[in-house]
Amino acid sequence: MIKSYTLDFCTLEIHDDYVLAVMNEGITVDKQNNAVLIEIAESHFDTPFVYITHRIHSYSVDPIVYIRTAQIKQLKGFAVVSKDPVQKTQTTYEKTFFNKEFWHFETMEDALKWKNKLLKKG
């Protein structure tokens, strides 16, 4: 890990080629939260990376944020990690707002394997 952030709505870990986010219980990821996340990501990555959210807690996402998130030049994909079947359904809906790779995984291990394959593709 290169750096970690503890924000009022989440914790973020910045790694060499990915961001790992864990949102706080009960929050809503809205345009303001998303702007903070984008600013942090863009300040750390000038090479391709993947955003991974580990959905440990229950929270909401305004799906409109994905439209702006997809505009991050170096962002190649977005992964949701959760064993909750409701999250798998939610991921299917959310990915309609994101015009890059967007997948659901049940384990961090699977998400990291996918990240490696995606980034190797270029």
CATH topology: Transcription Regulator spoIIAA
Low-confidence stretches: none
Major sheet summary line: 6 strands, mixed
The dominant shape is globular
What's the number of structural domains?
A: 1
Series of secondary-structure elements, N-terminal to C-terminal: EEEEHEEHEHEH
Helical percentage: 25-40%
Question: What's the CATH architecture?
Answer: 2-Layer Sandwich
Assigned CATH class? Alpha Beta
Sheet with most strands: strand arrangement = 1-2-3-5-7-8
- Tell me the number of strands: 8
Note the gap between the termini. 22 Å
Q: Mean pLDDT, rounded to whole units?
A: 96
Protein described:
The chain is of the alpha/beta class and 122 residues long. A six-stranded mixed sheet has the order 1-2-3-5-7-8, with helices on both faces. The protein contains four helices and eight strands, in the order ββββαββαβαβα. It has one domain (3-121): Transcription Regulator spoIIAA. The model has no long low-confidence stretch (mean pLDDT 96). The longest helix is centred in the first third of the chain and has 14 residues, at 31-44. β7, α3 (85-94) and β8 (101-105) form a beta-alpha-beta unit. 35% of the residues lie in helices and 30% in strands. The protein has helices at 31-44, 65-69, 85-94, 108-121, and strands at 3-6, 10-14, 18-23, 28-29, 49-54, 60-61, 75-81, 101-105. This is SpoIIAA-like. It comes from Aquimarina spongiae.
